[in-house]
Structures are given as C-alpha cells and as structure tokens.
C-alpha cells in the first residue's frame, strides 16, 4: 500500500570520494552498515519516508553521487532538480574538509537561479582518535556557508536519522513560509495526495525563486 | 610479498583463498552467495542459490558443455580461430573450465595491433615505473583496491593475491594512459578480468576494453564517450522498446542515470554472476555492441513489470534492483540475440557520431557557464571568500 505523504523532496548527497556518502544513505534507508562498499559510479538512488510531525510524512528521494571529480559532468542534472542536500566530509580526512568550498560552488553554479538547502555533515565521528577536523572549526565553516552542522557515524548509527530529519524539517519550514514553492518542470518539491494540509503559500506561487545566497 | 612472476594462474584456479567465515557460501567465481549474519537474508539467498544451481543443470546447459568439448577436441592444439561456429558457441556461454582459455584468445586477437604487446618486458617496465614514481592516479587506486568487488573472496583482504595483482594492473594501466589515469569503474573491469586471466593478460584485457572496444573518452575527464553512449542507448530504447520508452518519458524517469553505470563497468555488480560472465564471454568476443544488446534485453525481460508501475519513485526503485532479480540466463540471452535483431553496428556508429557533436557542444557551454560563474564570484565581494573574516562578527 502506498503510504500517505504530504510532500516529496529530492535530495542529493555530495562530497569527496570515500567520505562515506553511500554508507550514510544505506544506514538511513536500509538500516545496514558494511565496512566496505564499492565506489559509486555515476549515481545511485534511495528512498525513504520521514515523519517530521506526528502524522505528517515526507517522502525523500535521495540521490547518491560519485565522489571522483570526473563524474561531476554526469551528476550536474541532479543539482538542478534537488531542493536540498547533505554536504559530507570525513572528519578523519582534512582534504575532504578543504574541498567543501569546491563542492558548494559546483552545486550553486548548477542550481542557479534556484536555491538549494544544504546541511554540513562531518562523517565518521566514531573514529575519535583519527579526527583531523575539530567541531569548532567545522561549525565555523558551516556558519560561513549559512548551513547547520551535524556530526554522524553510519557505523555506530550516530545522528544518521537526525541529519536527514534536520534537513527535511528545514526545507519543510521554508516551503511552509513560501520561500520554496512547487514548480512545473522542477523535481525538487512535489506535493503529496493529502488535500487538507496544503499550505496557503502554495496557492500563491511566486515565479522566479531567487537564490538568496 | 609475491613477485609478479610468481603468480601465474587465474584467481579462480588459485588454491589460495582466505579462510572464509564458516557460515558464508561462495560461487565458483568467488562471490559470496549466502551471507553469514542475517537469518532471513540467508534463507532468501539460499533459495536463490538453489534456483541458480538448478538453472545451471538443465539439459540445455549440459548440451552447451558437450558442444564446447567437441569444438575444443576438434581444435586439437591449434589456436582458436574466429569463425561463425565459435561466435555462436561463445554466445551460448563459455563453461567455467574453458573460460580462461577463451578469454585469453579474445584478448590476444585484439592486441595484435599493439606492437608493444610483443615486447617481453613491456608490462614489467610499466610496473617498474609505477614502483618508483607516484602519479595522480596512485592515491585513488590505493583507496579503491579494497573497495573492489567486496563480496568476492579473492579481493577481501589487503593480503589477497587479487588485491596485489589488481594494484599492479591499474597502476600499469595508468602509466600507459596518463590522460585517463584511473577512473572509478576500471577497478571492477580489471578485477573481473583477473578472475580468469593471468596478471599480464588481465592488463591487456583492460587495454582492449578501453582502447579498442570503447569509443574515445569513455573514461577520461568528462566521460564524453560514456555520455554519448547513453544518448545512443536512449534512441535504441525508443526504437526497440517504444512502449517502455514512452512509459519512462511519461513519468519523467531518466533511466540513463542507472544504465550509465551498466555500460561503464560492463554490468559488473548489476546482474547475478552467472549472467555477468556469460555477457562478458560474448562481449570479449564481439565487442561493445553486446552491451547494447544486453541492456535492451534486461529491460525487455521485465517490461511488463515496469509498465505496471505508475509512480516515478517506484519506477526508480525498481530500476535500481530489477537486474538482480533476473536469474534465467538462457531466457535473457535469447532476448538479446534473437528478439533484438536486427542489430546493425552501423546504426550505433551513426547515432554515436550524431550525439557526439551535441554532447561536445553542451560541454563547451557548461564550461562557459563555469567560467562566467567563477569570474562573477571573483568580483563579487560577498562571494569571494566563503570563509570570510566577517564571521568573527557573528
């Protein structure tokens, strides 16, 4: 049976190779963790429902992307059709942290003039001894990027649910406020099948959403 | 550590294998068929393994085996020459025990055009360079070695012979092809080749796949060739499976997002191993046309199931795993080699030429957008430094 959901959001997960994007998604959607997963070639797809308020469910369409740079020419169409994303780095890999700016620029370039809501994710927080990026430092960067920050571990199931829920809720609030609206020919946000929870903001769709960044 | 010359056999024949956990089960290729932990998964996997086993014991399979025995007996000690008879045999799948021989002969046929393949030390020299110097590919290769075919026992630990050989093949290849270096996906191709070929032959197999079979720029910086092939494949879908194609169009499902991967790694990880190796048999003999045939056949096989799905998300979900649910190799091969006819190579080449120009143009436009964007950012005081000093004020 098809579960009832009020919206469908399309999200992407980006970041350097081996930061753990696929593991994070697998833990979130299948509840499983494997120490080793083969590199994502091109893109992969996951889906899950989340409940953001009692009785209010949102369907998440999650696109996993390849980390190796040359695959960026393939993944560009996902940015455009996504309303949000996890920007992931590996807490034990300084370079992946330093590359965040490049990832963000790449994303912003492809989504303009739309906006995309990101959450900064410091992954593999279980590996305390190998940590190369401090929480304070990451929080500072998140602030500069205008994002929230969260530390996760797919291995120990730390903050995996939270990261996706925080991002989903963030987008949901913006949709409610009318900052993001449903548009034809855009896959980022779709309306569900429940007529009585449609928000007033959706009725007055403002054309040409501008990127506030 | 083993020397290159010390490891002379294909991995599937090697006596060495790490002690498998007692509850896991493996197929002849070394892939784990039954996982150790989850009871429910174990049960499902066992049923599946049995299904596959019974499919491999049918009269048809036995008759294919007999045909091969006859063919090889007739060949005696002569080299396998390309012939319509051999082509038909290869299309029916090569038995496990003859696969090393057949694959090697396919590779040998194609490397005749590379004079360096005649030189005794060509491969060893590349390895020598790789041992002495780093190149931009080395780091990513190292990162991916243990992430290659993680379900295969030949690649399961850093000490595995397979890992050692895989590193060599990929490093040597990256020195031979600096413009490609290493592209994720090549690791899987090399790993599959290494299961049946000696290390140096696996290296040449990778060379044949990338430099002979695939169009230019399949694995280079923009993956231009791969992008083109997906457009070509879309055209073929609309021609050969028009109902399914318009079903995808209607639901705005871009299936090439998933099929891109099939082509780049020639179905590794997308189909069950019994089918994978049969596809590779024909692929190594006939070349890239086989990828199109089987990609279409996979869709044809499950066309009705797709047509029942009326929601884009459900379609995407099914797209992601449906290939793993196909177990009957004979049925699939029949679709690929009979139902999909006629299948002229000329048509594929024409479509490639047509799309190549378009994708090139799009990439140029994209690059222009990138340059403009970067220029704007450089002159925009807010955008210049994302980690700006004013965060101190917050």
Features of this protein?
heterodimer; A: 213 residues; alpha/beta; 7 strands; globular; disordered C terminus; B: 394 residues; mainly alpha; two-stranded antiparallel ribbon; 63% helix
Task: Provide an overview of this structure.
Chain B: GO terms for molecular function: GTPase activator activity; small GTPase binding. Chain B: Residues 93-287 form the Rab-GAP TBC domain. Chain B: It holds the Pfam family RabGAP-TBC. Chain A has 7 helices and 7 strands, in the order E-H-E-E-H-E-H-H-E-H-E-H-E-H. By secondary structure, chain A is an alpha/beta fold. In chain A, helix 5 (135-145) links the parallel strand 5 and strand 6 (148-151). In chain A, helix 2 packs across helix 4 (100-111). The relative contact order of chain A is 0.20. With 394 residues, chain B is mostly helical. Chain B is 63% helix and 1% strand. Chain B has helices at 39-56, 59-75, 84-91, 96-111, 122-132, 138-145, 161-176, 186-196, 199-213, 224-240, 242-250, 256-264, 273-286, 289-301, 303-308, 312-321, 329-339, 345-379, 381-384, and strands at 25-26, 32-34. In chain B, strand 1 and strand 2 (32-34) form a beta hairpin. Mean pLDDT of chain B is 88; it is low at 1-7 and 383-394. The interface between A and B is large, with 38 and 47 residues.
């Amino acid at each position: 049976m098809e579960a009832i959901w009020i919206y469908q959001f399309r999200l992407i997960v980006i970041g350097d190779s081996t930061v753990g994007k696929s593991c994070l998604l697998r833990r979130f959607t299948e509840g499983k963790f494997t120490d080793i997963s083969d590199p994502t070639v091109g893109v992969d797809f996951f889906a899950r429902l989340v409940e953001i308020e009692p009785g209010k469910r949102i369907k998440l369409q999650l696109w996993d992307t390849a980390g190796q740079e040359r695959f960026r020419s393939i993944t560009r169409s996902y940015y455009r059709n996504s309303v949000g994303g996890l920007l992931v780095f590996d807490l034990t890999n300084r370079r992946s942290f330093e590359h965040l700016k490049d990832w963000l620029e790449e994303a912003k370039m492809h989504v303009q003039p739309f906006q995309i809501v990101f959450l900064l994710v410091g992954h593999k927080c279980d590996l305390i001894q190998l940590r190369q990026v401090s929480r304070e430092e990451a929080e500072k960067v998140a602030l500069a990027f205008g994002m929230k920050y969260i530390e996760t571990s797919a291995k120990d199931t730390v903050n995996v649910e939270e990261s996706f829920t925080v991002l989903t809720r963030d987008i949901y609030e913006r949709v409610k406020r009318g900052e993001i609206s449903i548009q034809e020919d855009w896959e980022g946000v779709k309306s569900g099948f429940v007529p009585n929870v449609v928000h007033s903001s959706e009725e007055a769709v403002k054309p040409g959403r501008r990127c506030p960044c | 550590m083993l020397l290159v010359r010390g490891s002379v056999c294909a991995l599937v024949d090697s006596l060495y294998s790490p002690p498998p956990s007692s509850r896991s089960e493996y197929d002849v290729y070394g892939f784990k068929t039954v996982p150790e932990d989850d009871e429910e998964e174990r049960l499902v996997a066992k049923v599946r393994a049995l299904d596959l086993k019974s499919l491999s014991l049918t009269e048809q399979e036995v008759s294919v085996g007999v045909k091969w025995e006859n063919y090889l007996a007739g060949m005696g000690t002569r080299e396998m020459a390309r012939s319509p008879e051999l082509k038909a045999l290869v299309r029916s799948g090569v038995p496990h025990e003859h696969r090393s021989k057949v694959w090697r002969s396919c590779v040998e046929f194609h490397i005749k055009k590379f004079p360096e393949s005649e030189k005794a030390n060509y491969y060893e020299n590349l390895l020598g360079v790789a041992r002495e110097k780093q190149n931009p590919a080395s780091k990513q290769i190292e990162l991916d070695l243990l992430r290659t075919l993680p379900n295969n026992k030949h690649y399961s630990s850093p000490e595995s012979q397979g890992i050692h050989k895989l590193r060599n093949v990929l490093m040597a290849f990256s020195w031979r092809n600096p413009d490609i270096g290493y592209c994720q996906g090549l690791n899987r191709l090399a790993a599959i080749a290494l299961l049946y070929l000696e290390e140096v032959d696996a290296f040449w197999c990778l060379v044949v796949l990338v430099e002979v079979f695939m169009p230019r720029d399949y694995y280079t910086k923009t993956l231009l060739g791969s992008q083109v092939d997906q457009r070509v494949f879309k055209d073929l879908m609309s021609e050969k499976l028009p109902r399914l194609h318009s079903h995808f169009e209607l639901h705005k499902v871009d299936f090439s997002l998933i099929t891109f991967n099939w082509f780049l790694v020639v179905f590794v990880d997308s189909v069950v191993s019994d089918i994978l190796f049969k596809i590779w048999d024909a692929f190594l003999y006939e070349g890239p046309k086989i990828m199109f045939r089987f990609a279409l056949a996979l869709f044809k096989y499950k066309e009705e199931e797709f047509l029942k799905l009326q929601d884009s998300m459900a379609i995407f979900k099914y797209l992601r795993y449906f290939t793993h649910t196909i177990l009957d190799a004979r049925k699939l091969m029949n679709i690929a080699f009979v139902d999909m006819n006629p299948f002229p190579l000329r048509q594929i080449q024409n479509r490639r030429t047509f799309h190549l120009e378009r994708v090139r143009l799009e990439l140029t436009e994209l690059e222009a957008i990138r340059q403009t964007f970067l220029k704007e950012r450089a002159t925009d005081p807010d955008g210049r430094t994302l980690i700006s000093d004013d965060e101190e004020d917050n």
